[in-house]
Amino acid sequence: MATLLSTWSFGQVAARAAYPALAAGGSALDAVVAGASAVELDPTVDSVGVGGLPDASGRLSLDASVMTDPDRAGSVCFVRGFAHPTKIARDVMERTIHVMLAGDGAEAFARRLGHAEREQDALTDHARRLYLQWRDTHSDAGAREGYTPPMNVEERYRRDSASGGTGAGRPLPGHDTISLLARDRAGRLAGACTTSGLAFKLPGRVGDSPIIGHGLYVDQRAGAAAGTGTGELIMGVCGSFLIVEFMRQGLDPRSAIRRTLERIAERFALHPDHQAGFIAMAPDGRWASGALRPGFTHCISDEKGTRLEAGEALIGE
Ligand code: SD4
After folding, report:
1. Which of 17, 84, 108, 126 has its Cα between 20 and 30 A from that of 39?
2. Does ligand 1 have an atom closer than 6 angstroms to the CB of 231?
3. Which residues, 6 or more positions from 140, have their beta carbon under 8 angstroms from its beta carbon?
4. Where in the chain are the domains?
């Protein structure tokens, strides 16, 4: 049985692009890269790829990773002027002896391999409008130490509309990475993670998504996990690696996610805007999704079809 699991509602875009080939016998790695690439090209997704929101200086930089095993991983970070960081990450994995390329070096590598370039500072109209709104109200934020960008756009907009918000005092948008895990008909696991990072981040900031073990970890012998949310929380506990290690010790995917979220809750002074969500898959195909707080969603495709579902809030309301 083929299974594709991804984060957030735009996981449906990934499922449409990637699940048919996976169900027909395609590889898990091809599926996660195809799914990630479809979302990277969707201009309506403002947290991934070409539609992404920029950093505090108004520039867009992308991060991505792919992995199938401890000795097969690739990632790129702070990539500008390319639409498909996930495909570049796959090339790092398959065509170099390295795991991670950053910034100028990653871009030169992509250029050499013929990855399609785009204008470096191109933003969608939506991204530019939100950036200018943000800049008008936070002109000093980009320079402030410890500045915490807002998180979890779906939740924030829900809160705003529930409180009758008119949009004037509307919370700033957050960021929702697409992380994907797949298991193919041959029983092989693969994962990918792609993001434009936190909205209005300090220029140069890189989060969990492209860092193996933080935003993504896959070991065919133990399982796969991937994250979304405030990268700084996930990085503090090596979130995806920790989930896979808990599965290696015998925990089911749901308990492994819960233990990891508990670790985050124990070790951080959580801010109301903090969120962390994870998806996990065991080698036998059992899977789970869970987050610190309500509002997290995942998209699952298997022989029963594709469903968008609410992720469990595993740590209190
Ligand atoms: C980051 N984890 O760069 C990403 C952003 C994200 O939901 O996933 N937001 O920290």
Report:
1. 108
2. yes
3. none
4. 3-313
